Amino acid sequence: MVAVVVVTVAAGVSLGLLATRDDGGPAGPEQQGSAPGTSQADSPVGRRTSPTPSPTRSYPLSKAPQTIPAVQSHTAARGPGWRPARGERVVVSDAELADEGRLIAGELGLTYAGRKDDARAGDVRLALSEDEGANPESYTMTVRGGRVAISGPGESGVFYGTRTLKQEVAGGGTAPEGVVRDAPAKPVRGFMLDIARKHFTADWIEDRVRELADLKFNQLGLHFSDDQGFRIESDSHPEVVSRQHLTKAQVRKIVQLAESRHITVVPEIDSPGHLGAVIAAHPDLQLRNVNGAATRGAIDISKPESAEIVDDLLNEYAGLFPGGQWHLGGDEYQALVVSDPEASYPQLATAAREAHGSGATVADLATGWLNDRAETVRAHDRTPRAWNDGFFRNTSVQPDKDIQVAYWTGKEIGARVPVEYLSAGRKVVNYNDEFLYYVLGEPQTFVYPTGERIYEQWTPRVLRGTVAVPAEYDGQILGGSFAVWCDLADSQTQAQVAAGIRMPLRATAQKLWDADQPQLTWARFRALADRLD
Q1: 88 is catalytic
Q2: Which of 100, 137, 177, 332 is catalytic?
């Protein structure tokens, strides 16, 4: 069973068993006249004797596919369904679908035949549909007459159709006869990985890309700069890069793999906090309080050189990450967690007044910093995103309207409830730290999230704690992201992280594709995951 499954029967088809040919079609008159072993001469009509017909096959109505995430709708039909066989083809109607065609052909052991107009038994055909205004991530998959047809208004939708087909036939299964119509509830379905505090190998990240793709995720966040490390090769500032890091060639390969599976890689260089690795190479940019004490991870945003180095890095990596999204961070700037920022950091207070007027505060200066970094990435056609504790209440300087809110916590000083952002018209991505944060070593109050809790209690509208925001704001919640944070980096190996996030990722995928109450119990969902892997 699957979430929100609509089962219908084609017009004219009885709910009783219908005799069919061996190929799944309806039986002809010569096949439907008599029961096996009975001649027509035995009938009251008294017609001439004819040969005893052979038994015919009949099929029950098909059942909806069992996939993760579950399909939104399946129209049942009668027939044998489809399963891959050696020598069968994957063909495309549109050359743009060549990558999708080659991938599913290789996965199912079929032959990729390219763009073809003819039809053969066993074919899987991929096609773009002309449906203006339709969700580009939607698709229709028809299993009929021993063939499969997958179509959608965009390449991504067709790709998701191939993921459904792959799961349907996993382990020797059969794609059920009928029509699947499917589309995600949310446009942002993400996974964020902290590679700054812990080095993850390129191979491990590529494995996660493949896993995410099969679950129909469409974003991979890479948090690659923090106090503990800067993990991607840099040409503009090689001095900030940690010994263990990814080369640009490795990152390009990850990005290309992600693009081939319709996943956007969303980079994050967090600022003005969490810049310890950059500051270590540029100690003159360290923020210090009125007593001269260094403030951990914080760059001094009163110095023009601070903006210059961060913009250098943002501009450099815009060429490495071609996707349309960029995460600016903005969280936990330690100058704003003290009781009187203006007294503790007089240089920031002076810079605030000079930039924004006599009544400006350090929070205004930090907001101006965020807007300036947003302008830097906006010049590269990126949509900026920032953590919710980088948005401050009662400031004269307001964050730019297009900066999306990455809502993760309600524990910061002066915490603002999610509705404050939503009622102001902002778009929000859900990173709820009580459900979606996998923090290595479980520091502070964090505990490893479970797939069961996400599956049974969380929805994209549950932005903070366990209570959902009103349904009227659902359209402003773009989706969500599961996140791995490596606060205590040595607490788990890469393999342990992969195993620990396996079921939480699957539960998150289900709830982002369809936020309604799933029809499978958790036990059955977990068993399905075991069968599909």
Answers
A1: no
A2: 332
